[in-house]
Amino acid sequence: MTTRPFFPRQSVKGSLEEPPALRRLSVSLPQMALITGILLRIWRSFVLTHGTPDSWLWVGGTFLAGMTFLFLMLTLHLGNFTVRRWAVHAPLFAVLEAGSEIVTSLALTAFGLEPLGSEMAEWSDWLPMATRILFWRLLGIVVFTLVLAVVVTIVRRLLLAGEHRASTVAAVHRASAASEAHTDVPSDATG
Asked: Backbone dihedral region of 11: left (phi > 0), alpha (psi from -120 to 50 degrees) or beta?
């Protein structure tokens, strides 16, 4: 009787595939939020100093472009996680994005490049601007995430129902209800 060696004489060559750079970036919450905040603040500064602020089309279009970029970056990040984990990732993204935007605003203010209306911002303007940035980013990102979660949930259910996988829909619903019931049980409860 021949025994198999514990360590084979020949090994199977395997290789790990690195995900593409955009995928690695999109998984990282700090990197996505920091890049988004810095680019949004620089975009705002550029638009307000080099555009035609008298034109509502210019102001609205550039605002829409900025918000599209913000929500695109958020969606790229959230797409890597389940909808349940979005409740943690979205507010963290908002806080980190607002924080990087606030720090960028501070740097632009220090160099005299931060516009505030038709003038440049001063040190006394920075704290109210920082508070406004944090409030509006947090509110906008949380509302967008809630709408996105509803849309994703509806589309997933419709796709499963369209593929005649009603049993999968029912199983997913049962599993989610069981998971919620399991997490609602107090820790001091004895069986």
From this structure: beta
**Per-residue model confidence as pLDDT tens digits over 108-129:** 999 988 888 778 888 888 899 9
**Alpha carbons 90 and 96: distance in angstroms, whole number:** 10
Task: Report long-range pairs for 24-31 (Cβ below 8 Å, ≥24 apart).
Answer: 26/76, 26/77, 26/79, 26/80, 27/77, 27/80, 29/77, 29/89, 29/92, 29/93, 29/96, 30/96
Q: Tell which residue, 57, 27, 62, has the closest CA to residue 43.
A: 62
Q: What is the DSSP letter of 83?
A: G
Spans of all domains in the chain: 26-181
Can you read off the two tokens belonging to residue 48? 């307000």
Tokens describing residue 103: 């720090």
**Residue pointed to by tokens 């975009």:** 43
Low-confidence ranges of the chain (pLDDT < 50): 6-7, 189-191
The string over 127-166, giving b where at least 16 C-beta atoms fall within 10 Å of a residue's C-beta and e elsewhere, is eebbeebbeebbeebbebbeebbeebeeeeeeebeeeeee
Residue 120 in 3-state DSSP?
strand
Structure tokens at 161: 């129902």
- Per-residue pLDDT at 11: 56
**Cut 0.85: pTM above it:** no
